[in-house]
Amino acid sequence: MNRNGIRLAALDLDGTLLRDDKTISDYTLSTLEKLTKAGILVVPATGRNLEGLNDNILRVPGISYAVCSNGAQVFRIDHRKLLWEAAIPLEDAVAAIRYLQEFPTFLYVHTEEGTFRSGNWRDTDLKKRFPFIRFEENNVPDLPAFVEEKQLRVIKIGVFVLDDRTFGRLLEKGSPMPSISQFRTGPCNLELNSARASKAYGVEALCRHLNLSMDQVLAVGDNQNDISLLRMAGVSAAMGNSEEDVKTAAAYVTGTNQEDGAARFLEGYFGLPPRTCCKD
Length: 280
Prior knowledge:
Elements: E1 8-11, H1 26-37, E2 41-44, E3 65-68, E4 73-76, E5 81-85, H2 90-100, E6 105-111, E7 114-118, H3 126-129, E8 139-140, H4 143-150, E9 154-161, H5 164-173, E10 180-186, E11 189-194, H6 199-210, E12 217-221, H7 227-232, E13 235-238, H8 244-249, E14 252-253, H9 261-270
């Protein structure tokens, strides 16, 4: 039973719907399909760009909207129509990239022209640690100069920090400038967006488009970039694999992403028919 009039489920992907190997279980796919058939709008709310959804959640029929790049872009998927955007000002994006390159990091940017990556990945062990990421695609030797020369709209800056000490320092320092927000999104990952962008702002923009309120939103997430949305949604759940600051922001805590915790929570909350079998 839909106890609180929830109309929209805003769901994180990495660490939430996706397992550690970046796959999505048949059980989770089936649960999401049941939700869409029950009339609930299932909306990925993710740090990924739109192209990063194709091999996972978009296998579910009936998903029409996506909140991408930590809320910096909102799309009508079937029309590939951009409904809302909050890009980082070009000058600030270039300055932030140059600043981050002073540390042992690997950087990438989401832009309106696609994702571009710094060319130093071969000097790291990142491919071994994250074999599912295409580090070798769209490499440029001087990322900030490339962004500046092409006058690209930078939607998000992604950072892989190459040692724990530096990661701690960058977390402690926080955002390099007031116009940019910085989030912890993984054990060695930071993501930077416009200060006007967050998953909460992105979902709120989508709600305005759909004439819904945030009270009609259920959110599930696992990391620092989910906190704003968990706090604003009418119903919220943190994953069991979340850090404590994320769990504190949510009304509920469910199982881990390895245990299909998000799907189990959704099934129980909405009173969906339980699974009778499962391949995974």
